[in-house]
């Protein structure tokens, strides 16, 4: 099949169309367009001012980006379209000036999965101007029906639309239902939505005045009465279930009182909804669902009679509404059983037949012309010929229309230079081929288990009739997953089918996109036909099992006799995977019931006794099965939301732990998630939350919202946050900001209404305004910032200026200065900690700095910070004032060195990872962490202890369903408050045990941890309080090159450092705050030294290192000289002066490391790992040659090999670890396995067991102090724990644990504690607390309020509400 051309992407199509409009508008300067957008003063759906930079418009035209919101594009169109219309009143391409078509094109560009591959290709090309090729919008809907907004592309049914309008016009006089009847795929839904509705809204049914008609569209679904009552609330009392009626005289369907009540209710609704006296029109599409999905005959009949009564004539009164029903032709016979429908079919119905040849040609060519596409000569004729029958009138099968549209969609994706080609049509496979190929391609991309799940999923979305063709049926995603025997694979297959547009997934429902798929895809057709009777039986069985489950498993509904025999025989032949879990339980219960009946009928006492015993056993088994199923469901739900809502996932893990407290897997989940940030939601706002700000004492939180209020929250107890008083009101538009003064007594808020309000919050429970609002701003105030002394307030304004306000008298603030220089709206401001510098970010993509050394005479700093390619949303100074962070709509964060404000410079490359604009950035109080909130609904955390080498910490914070507008740290540095578009504030508990580094080593007493980072420096940390590690002294840098390995001597006074420059150096760390080198580095000959190729002997006298590529060297470590280094030497090393390092080396002991004997030979690959046995008599080495070797080092100068190499791994050995008793050696390899060896007799070492479970290479191993647990870390980003009490029978302890980021080479149990040190991410070392009780306490204290009753019943419907952190 021909590959899609590079211009087939939706993004490119969007760029083509925008370039054409730009050309038609006279190619105005981009800057002028951007300024015109500002003058429009438009706001987006959240009330924020719409700003579009010239660079963004340029990116749109070049297909580099697509607008994130349509409001931004609409503003640009409102500038360009009038210009283009002035120059050319009639558009060069139909629809070029139509905003609705532009919205459709934009939707394709941001969401169409077909365009993604091409998009990625376009982004890699040089950013040249896209050619103005017409046809950027796809006017064909594929298998989906045409919607109202697609009316401009709906061709070929004009005659049918007029006929349907005529039917309604006649019904206005006579009353009664109007019915549109047609075959499946004939286009009934398209005619109603894209043909009839626009005609009605354009006044086609009016009285000559052209007034539009109000139109209500609905689909019956499984409960048509409930749907009707939802759409017309006045009918709720009439449409209640007929079985529950208590007023027969008024509610009995079909009676005159009933018709009167319906007419009154509908008339009331019509008067409320209709803007004129014209009667509304009610369209009931897919009316056949009243037969296929509604199981209640009484409900179906009542639904029909209500619709009939609503449009029935009454003497002297016009009909309240007009009602038209769209129904499939194969339900004609069922309709005749209802007098109301029979009357409509006899007097007021229209049959939607096939298109004529002329109409068919118009349906093919009309949409193409509407978007400026050309058709290659002969293409239209080929399509018409392919779909037409051989009859004399050239008609076709009506059901082929959706297939035709799908083929044309595929052809459009293969268009060439604005033309639909014959080659593209053939490559798409024509009519049947287009659908079959798409379905088959989606099917082929699934693994075997997912294919089985997809087959069962599709069959459950099909309803089989005894004598009618198969039809679609709706389901819900949760129901399909709950009923599946493999919910994960069901979800995976569903996503694949949705991406291929074979299945439509709405907010609540799942359904096959069109019934044409049931006949065009051979595989699905075969599934339906190959065992039709079996599928009918399965369908009935699953429906009956759902009814049984819904009635609390009423035994009277169970199968008996022949029915049970048929179902049981079929189930045994088909197997359980072909049934839902409810159906399996239902059938098993039926079988058990039959057995009980048989036994009882025999009447034997012995049989009764046996029956009782079996019943008890069955109950136990059933209870265990149910318990297993519930436990599995809880774990599955926790896994499903782990990435999107970790706080909810943690609560679900707690539920699993409560269900099975002794389950190691559940315990490991708690330990794994305890180091992830977790959140407590604060509910109260009714609009997006734009800013979060803590009071200086950290006891109060202020939040500003789109709901025009500021709320104060008591967060003194993080585990029980609560609102303080009533919301602060007064602003007349959305509130953009609310910040505390440095003394915490005053709160300043600003709004889109252009005012600033000050509030006295000394008693935060009873705040009150200070003075009158400050005015004078032209437009929105985006942000406020207090100066450190609290005497000045800076405001970022839409009028391109920053205003400084004098607050010496808070009751009468006055303007101190207006700072100008930005060429677009200013978004953000921030004071430096010393108050001498102000930073501002604006829509001109720049950051400006201002000298405020004299606040009365602020001066601009000449250097403008550039680098961002889109508007700057946020700026923030680090607590030491040396670093400035900025977040931009270009999706990046940048760090700037502003230690010398007059000479600022960028620090490294932009921080990337977000997929949407960065709205907010904030430093933690100690300056070691940076938080950033983004429109992609996440917040990221960055380790910025060394701002030249920042690294992301863990996974982004998720859980919001809206944009992450605000981030703000509490004074304790452990709490982060975020504000989001879903109206929620979340208090995140941020782990504080993160340290900068890639690798690490514990001091033998466990109180100090050494880490080495990408900046080539070593840091020593006090970890006596593991939750709050403290940096000891300044980082020190050994010899040039990155640090590959660290090892403490047994006494903890010396640390050996192996560097990338192939050298090893010893440092005196007796005082960890003042490390100093012991002499110069000792060069090694190896080209590569593994990360663990460094080890001290237990007595501290011998050091083992790699020597050259395949050998090992033992070194004598003598006693250190008393004064080998001074503080000045240490300081010079910290400055990195090579001459000073030379002086230090000369003053130290140049014979500090002396080789012991000749290098040890034998390996045939690089030496990756070295480790001494606990008794110091044996050295183990692991190599890239896939072997481990043991060496007798009792006499280090005469070391010799012990026994044969340990073989068995099928890849390089990366890591080794001895058990504390020295009897077991563990080895980890690139073959993804861990092997355990019995080395009690080193000369006769034997293999004990192989541990599997990692999906990638093993990178690190460590034994617990008691030797009963082994931890392994792999490149699959997982840590696994193993019970090695009996090494020959080692078993995994629960499931693997994720460190919430990529693992590295450091993994070590802390001596004498329950902590596990682990490298997590590219530059972070973490300490994990392995205490399950501590994990439970943290989860409960940081996620309180997450597990509401509604959330519980949504995720755990089979369990009674019992939150794991009950008050």
Lay out the secondary structure:
Blueprint: H1 10-24, H2 30-40, H3 54-61, H4 70-87, H5 99-111, H6 116-124, H7 158-174, E1 178-182, H8 188-201, E2 215-218, H9 224-231, H10 248-251, H11 256-273, E3 281-284, H12 289-292, H13 297-310, E4 322-328, H14 332-335, H15 339-347, E5 349-352, H16 357-370, E6 374-375, H17 379-387, H18 401-413, E7 419-420, H19 422-427, H20 430-444, H21 448-460, E8 462-463, E9 471-472, E10 475-476, H22 477-483, H23 487-499, E11 503-505, E12 509-512, H24 517-520, H25 522-530, H26 532-550, H27 561-574, H28 581-602, H29 605-640, H30 646-659, H31 664-673, E13 678-682, E14 689-694, E15 700-705, E16 710-714, E17 722-728, E18 735-740, E19 746-751, E20 756-760, E21 768-774, E22 781-786, E23 792-797, E24 802-806, E25 814-819, E26 826-831, E27 837-842, E28 847-851, E29 859-860, E30 872-877, E31 883-888, E32 893-897, E33 905-906, E34 918-923, E35 929-934, E36 939-943, E37 951-952, E38 964-969, E39 975-980, E40 985-989, E41 995-996, E42 999-1002, E43 1008-1012, E44 1018-1022, E45 1030-1036, E46 1043-1048, E47 1054-1059, E48 1063-1068, E49 1076-1083, ...
Parallel strand pairs: 1-4, 1-5, 2-3, 3-4, 6-7
Antiparallel strand pairs: 8-9, 10-12, 11-12, 13-40, 14-15, 15-16, 16-17, 18-19, 19-20, 20-21, 22-23, 23-24, 24-25, 26-27, 27-28, 28-29, 30-31, 31-32, 32-33, 34-35, 35-36, 36-37, 38-39, 39-40, 41-68, 42-43, 43-44, 44-45, 46-47, 47-48, 48-49, 50-51, 51-52, 52-53, 54-55, 55-56, 56-57, 58-59, 59-60, 60-61, ...
Helix pairs in contact: 1-4, 1-5, 2-3, 2-4, 7-8, 11-13, 16-17, 18-20, 21-23, 22-23, 26-27, 26-28, 27-28, 29-30, 30-31, 30-34, 31-34
């Amino acid at each position: 099949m021909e590959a899609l051309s590079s211009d087939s992407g939706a993004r490119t199509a969007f760029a083509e169309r925008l370039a054409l409009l730009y050309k038609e508008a006279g190619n105005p300067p981009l800057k002028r367009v951007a300024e015109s957008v500002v003058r429009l003063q438009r706001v987006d759906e959240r009330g924020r001012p719409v700003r579009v930079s010239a660079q963004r418009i340029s990116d749109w035209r070049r297909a580099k980006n697509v607008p994130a919101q349509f409001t931004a594009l609409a503003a640009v169109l409102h500038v360009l379209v009038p210009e283009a219309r002035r120059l050319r009143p009639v558009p060069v391409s139909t629809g070029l000036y139509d905003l609705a078509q532009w919205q459709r094109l934009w939707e394709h560009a941001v969401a169409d999965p077909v365009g993604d591959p091409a998009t990625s290709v376009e982004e890699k090309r040089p950013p040249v101007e896209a050619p103005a090729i017409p046809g950027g919008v796809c006017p064909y809907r594929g298998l989906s029906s045409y919607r109202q907004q697609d009316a401009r592309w709906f061709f070929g049914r004009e005659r049918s639309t007029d006929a349907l309008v005529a039917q309604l016009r006649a019904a206005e006089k006579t009353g009664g239902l109007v019915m549109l009847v047609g075959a499946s795929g004939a286009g009934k839904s398209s005619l109603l939505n894209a043909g009839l509705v626009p005609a009605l809204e354009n006044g086609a049914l009016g009285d000559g005045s052209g007034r539009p008609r109000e139109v209500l569209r609905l689909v019956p679904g499984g409960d048509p009465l409930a749907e009707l009552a939802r759409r017309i609330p006045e009918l709720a009392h009439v449409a209640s279930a007929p079985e529950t009626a208590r007023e027969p005289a008024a509610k009995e369907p079909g009676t005159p009182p009933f018709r009167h009540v319906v007419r009154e209710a509908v008339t009331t609704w019509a008067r409320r909804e209709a803007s004129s006296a014209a009667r509304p029109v009610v369209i009931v599409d897919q009316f056949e669902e009243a037969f296929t999905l509604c199981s209640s005959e009484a409900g179906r009949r009542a639904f029909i009679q209500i619709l009939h009564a609503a449009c029935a004539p009454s003497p002297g009164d016009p009909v309240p509404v007009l009602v038209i029903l769209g129904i499939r032709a194969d339900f004609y016979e069922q309709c005749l059983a209802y007098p109301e429908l029979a009357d409509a079919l006899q007097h007021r119905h229209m049959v939607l037949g096939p298109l004529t040849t002329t109409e068919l040609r118009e349906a093919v060519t009309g949409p193409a012309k509407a978007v400026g596409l050309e058709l290659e000569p002969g293409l239209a004729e080929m399509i018409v010929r392919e779909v037409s029958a051989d009859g004399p009138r050239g008609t076709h099968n009506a059901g082929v229309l959706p297939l035709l549209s799908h083929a044309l969609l595929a052809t459009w994706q293969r268009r060439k230079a604005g033309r639909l080609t014959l080659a593209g049509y053939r490559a798409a496979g024509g009519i049947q081929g287009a659908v079959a190929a798409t379905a088959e391609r989606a099917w082929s991309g699934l693994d075997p288990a997912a294919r089985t799940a997809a087959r069962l999923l599709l069959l459950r979305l099909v309803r089989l009739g005894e004598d009618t063709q198969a039809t679609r049926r709706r389901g819900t995603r949760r129901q399909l997953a709950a009923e599946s025997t493999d919910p994960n694979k069901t979800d995976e297959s569903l996503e694949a089918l949705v991406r291929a547009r074979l299945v439509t997934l709405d907010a609540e429902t799942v359904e096959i996109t069109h019934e044409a798929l049931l006949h065009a895809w051979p595989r699905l057709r075969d599934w339906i036909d190959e065992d039709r009777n079996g599928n009918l039986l399965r369908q009935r069985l699953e429906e009956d099992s759902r009814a049984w489950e819904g009635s609390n498993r009423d035994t009277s509904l169970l199968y008996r006799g022949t029915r049970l025999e048929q179902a049981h025989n079929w189930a045994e032949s088909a197997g359980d995977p072909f049934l839902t879990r409810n159906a399996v339980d239902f059938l098993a219960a039926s079988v058990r019931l039959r057995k009980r009946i048989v036994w009882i009928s025999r009447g034997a006492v012995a049989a009764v006794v046996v029956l009782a015993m079996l019943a008890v056993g069955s109950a136990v088994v059933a209870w265990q099965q149910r318990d297993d199923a519930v436990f599995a469901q809880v774990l599955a739900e926790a896994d499903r939301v782990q990435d999107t809502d970790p706080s909810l996932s943690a609560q679900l893990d707690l539920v699993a732990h409560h269900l099975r407290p002794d389950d190691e897997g559940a315990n490991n989940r708690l330990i794994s998630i305890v180091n992830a940030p977790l959140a407590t939601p604060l509910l109260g706002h009714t609009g997006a939350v734009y800013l979060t700000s803590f009071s200086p004492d950290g006891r109060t939180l202020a939040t500003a919202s789109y709901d025009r209020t500021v709320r104060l929250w008591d967060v003194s107890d993080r585990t029980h946050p609560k609102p303080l008083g009533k919301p602060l009101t007064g602003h007349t538009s959305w509130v953009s900001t609310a910040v505390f003064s440095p003394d915490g007594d005053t709160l300043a808020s600003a709004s889109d209404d252009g005012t600033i309000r000050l509030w006295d919050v000394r008693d935060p429970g009873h705040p009150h305004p200070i003075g009158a609002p400050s005015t004078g701003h032209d437009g929105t105030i985006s942000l406020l910032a207090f100066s450190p002394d609290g005497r000045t307030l800076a405001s970022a304004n839409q009028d391109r200026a920053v205003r400084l306000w004098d607050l010496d008298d808070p009751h009468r603030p006055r303007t101190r200065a207006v700072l100008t220089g930005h060429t677009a709206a200013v978004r953000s401001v921030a004071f430096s900690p010393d108050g001498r510098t102000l930073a501002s970010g604006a829509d001109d993509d720049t950051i400006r700095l201002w000298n405020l050394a004299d606040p009365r005479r602020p001066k601009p700093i000449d250097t403008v910070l550039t680098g961002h390619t889109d508007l700057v949303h946020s700026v923030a100074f680090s607590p030491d004032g040396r670093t400035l962070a900025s977040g931009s709509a270009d999706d990046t964060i940048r760090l700037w060195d502003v230690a010398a404000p007059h000479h600022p410079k960028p620090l490294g490359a932009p921080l990337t990872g977000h997929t949407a604009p960065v709205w907010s950035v904030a430093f933690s109080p100690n300056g070691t962490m940076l938080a950033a909130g983004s429109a992609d609904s996440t917040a990221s955390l960055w380790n910025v202890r060394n701002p030249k080498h920042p690294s992301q910490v863990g996974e982004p914070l998720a859980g919001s369903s809206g944009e992450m507008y605000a981030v703000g740290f509490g004074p304790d540095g452990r709490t982060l408050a975020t504000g989001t578009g879903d109206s929620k504030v979340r208090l995140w508990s941020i782990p504080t045990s993160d340290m900068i580094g890639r690798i690490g080593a514990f001091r033998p007493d466990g109180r100090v941890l050494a880490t080495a980072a990408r900046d080539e420096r070593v840091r020593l940390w006090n970890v006596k309080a593991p939750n709050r590690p403290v940096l000891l002294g300044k980082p020190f840098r050994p010899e040039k090159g990155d640090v590959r390995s660290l090892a403490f001597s047994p006494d903890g006074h010396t640390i050996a450092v192996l560097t990338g420059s192939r050298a090893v150096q010893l440092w005196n760390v007796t005082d960890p705050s003042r490390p100093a080198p012991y002499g110069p580095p000792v060069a090694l000959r190896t080209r590569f030294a593994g990360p663990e190729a460094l080890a001290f002997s237990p007595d501290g006298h011998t050091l083992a290192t790699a020597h050259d590529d395949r050998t090992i060297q033992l070194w004598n470590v003598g006693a250190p000289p008393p004064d080998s280094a001074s503080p000045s030497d240490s300081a010079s090393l910290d400055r990195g002066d090579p001459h000073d390092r030379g002086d230090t080396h000369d003053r130290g002991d140049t014979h500090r490391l002396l080789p012991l004997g000749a290098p040890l030979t034998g390996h045939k690959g690089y030496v990756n790992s070295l480790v001494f046995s606990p008794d110091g008599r044996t050295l183990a080495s692991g190599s890239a040659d896939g072997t481990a070797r043991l060496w007798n080092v009792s006499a280090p100068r005469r070391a010799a090999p012990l026994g044969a190499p340990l073989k068995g791994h099928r890849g390089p050995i990366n890591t080794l670890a001895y058990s504390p008793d020295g009897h077991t050696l563990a080895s980890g390899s690139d073959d993804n396995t861990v092997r355990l060896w019995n080395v009690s007799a080193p000369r006769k070492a034997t293999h004990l067991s192989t541990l599997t479970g990692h999906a990638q290479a093993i990178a690190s191993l460590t034994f617990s102090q008691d030797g009963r647990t082994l931890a392994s870390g792999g490149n699959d980003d997982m840590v696994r724990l193993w019970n090695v009490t009996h090494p020959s029978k080692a078993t995994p302890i629960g499931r693997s644990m994720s460190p919430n980021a990529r693992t590295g080479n450091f993994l070590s149990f802390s001596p004498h504690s329950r902590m596990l040190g682990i490298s997590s991410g590219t530059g972070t070392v973490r300490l994990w607390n392995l205490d399950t009780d501590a994990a439970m306490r943290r989860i409960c204290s940081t996620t309180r309020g997450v597990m509401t009753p509604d959330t519980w019943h949504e995720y755990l419907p089979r369990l009674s509400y019992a939150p794991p952190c009950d008050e």
